[in-house]
Amino acid sequence: MRLVVGRCSVDYAGRLSASLAEAVRLVMVKADGCVAVHADGGAYKPLNWMNAPNTLREEEGRWVVTNPAGETLTITFSEVLLDAAHDLGEDPGLVKDGVEAHLQELLAAHPETFGDGVTLVRREYPTGIGPVDLLCRAADGSTIAVEVKRRGEIDGVEQLTRYLERLNRDPLLRPVRGVFAAQRIKPQARTVAEDRGIGCVEVDYDRLRGLESDELRLF
Amino acid sequence: MRLVVGRCSVDYAGRLSASLAEAVRLVMVKADGCVAVHADGGAYKPLNWMNAPNTLREEEGRWVVTNPAGETLTITFSEVLLDAAHDLGEDPGLVKDGVEAHLQELLAAHPETFGDGVTLVRREYPTGIGPVDLLCRAADGSTIAVEVKRRGEIDGVEQLTRYLERLNRDPLLRPVRGVFAAQRIKPQARTVAEDRGIGCVEVDYDRLRGLESDELRLF
DNA sequence: GTGTATATCTCGGGG
DNA sequence: CCCCGAGGTATACAC
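YS: structure for the whole thing
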């Protein structure tokens, strides 16, 4: 990784045009060739950037970065305050816990969350326009389609609505009810869901995970 | 801006849990207090980060970053290879051209894109659940609601569908047809749109901009 | 503050 | 390779 701090102006021409007037900024060049221009604020997002793969041509006080799509980033330096290079090596990578996939996994293991006698048919059940997260069977033989989200917003309800419309065309599944499951469901999403007869379930992630580890302890 | 390159392990606890095993990384601390941990690859997104506002407590070989929501980022250093601070000052900021707002502007100036005799009623026409990008009048007196996107995906069709449902309740506007306009429309979005009787128009941004400058040249 | 829409979104998975 | 969906999305803007 190469770090350059300097006074520069920047121009990007590609999916859009964007330009930066002269100021002092950090230019970061990573080992994979990607380039990012950072100001001293504005969260982690750079002002301007070019993703790998691309080629960096370094002229006198001027860098021209080009990628295979023909986009270009031009950085013109009038002053360089720091120019340091370090070999960081491979990164072992991030380990995450608590994302939607894990929530789906826990709910698949505990379909009774959606009602007494509810059993799992399968996860990622294909509908023709994308897979529905969980397909379950209710005690009365009817089908339940579950959309799982970490945060329940209106998009998730729309997604489930599209799946339900498709699934209800299948005589072997019909009637299919919808359940929208999330750690937290926004009021607007709940209103739209209930308007459409879709059930809403707020899931306690930590409690579910607790159940899981309790069960593991039995073995 | 402070730049630290060093061997470190990192833990984040907040909306999820995420951890990084020990490796050499760049830690960037911006003037606004935000912290980002970068590996030597992977575009501009850091492996781990904390957005401003937050407080950084620096102990012996260990940084603890806390934000008002109670999330914490802990960085434990075993070795420091670089520790440099620079005052970058205020940034004049990015000037952009070619985003959705410009596309909307150009289409507002050229409603004939949507059919002969089509005229603009107004931009950002309020519907009660958000503004529709363009409201137009067709030659036959019927109304056209246009949703403009740079990239036409399914979310945009859903958005337009919600607007159309609202607009068609208004007897002064009814009947309202929908048109989905984008530089490029994804197949799935097109399928859903056409299912619902919504027209799809792919817009050539450069050609429209050309028309615009031709007209300016007449004056 | 919540809600809504945008983004050169980034990133990862599946066909 | 493109398409699609998720994200600790972040960010701006309206109500």
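YS: worth flagging: Chain B touches chain A through 56 residues (CB under 8 Å).
IM: good catch. Also Chain B has two domains: 2-85, 100-217.
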